[in-house]
Design a protein that fits this description.
This protein is an alpha+beta fold. Helices cover 21% and strands 50% of the residues.
Amino acid sequence: MADKQNDGEPQFPTYKGKPLVRCGDVIYYGSMKDRYVVRLEIKSKKKVKDLDVADRVGIQLMLTDQTVRNRKQIVKTSEKNGLYLAMDLADVWLSRALAK
């Protein structure tokens, strides 16, 4: 899906209309063109049948401004049990931050 090109930009999977980009155990939710994105880090996994499922997920609302120092880019942080709860919170945080 990420290999398809549309006007020179890759097409990423989306959640509620915003792109999801994954690299290992880190998922970025939102567009880097916007002022904020959410970084989700899978901190632990558990086995369900023969699949690894995210157990503890760290969530960070971050500024995308590269001129701001790394520590100052983090606006909010939390941790949730399960990817669904983490994605739900990430969507609320990102929607509210982008509405300002």
